[in-house]
Predict the structure of Ubiquinol-cytochrome c reductase iron-sulfur subunit.
Amino acid sequence: ENPRRRDYLSIGAVAFAGVGVGVVALPLINQMSPSADVLALSTTELDLSAIEPGQAIKASFRKQPLFVRNLTPQEIEAANKVPLSDLRDPQSLAERTKEGKANWLVTLGVCTHLGCVPLGAGEGENKGPFGGYFCPCHGSAYDTAGRIRQGPAPLNLAVPDYSFTSDTTILVG
Ligand code: FES
């Protein structure tokens, strides 16, 4: 065995670790104060494969809560049978989802009244009287398509720009 070779290797490893810390620290500092143009360009990719029908996840997109929900056939049917004339902000489920993917409801988790985060995406949370989302701040209730049905909020939960990048992954933004 050659002891000089071993010394060289361990010095090399320490130097490499030092570089690694520097590389990791930079993006963290950048995230603390993103400029407006950086925010505008940022996208979020999400893997939906673990979300079972009837479940939702809370993610975040440009620092706002994002809900992704896998609707059950019953929830899709409930949304589709509401006449658009009953809606404050008339939109069909089809208009709020992607073609052939009506079960994937992707919305911001931001109440359109004063911006609270509605309940209903987390396990066991109150989905409200229309089975979608319920805002605990002043009682706005959204249906299974995330449309406003009751309470002070004027608009449906916003659907961000997104696209499917595979059968079970989306790119938001
Ligand atoms: Fe949601 Fe007021 S902020 S009902």
About this structure: Residues 111, 113-116, 135, 137-140, 151-153 surround FE2/S2 (inorganic) cluster (CB under 6 Å).
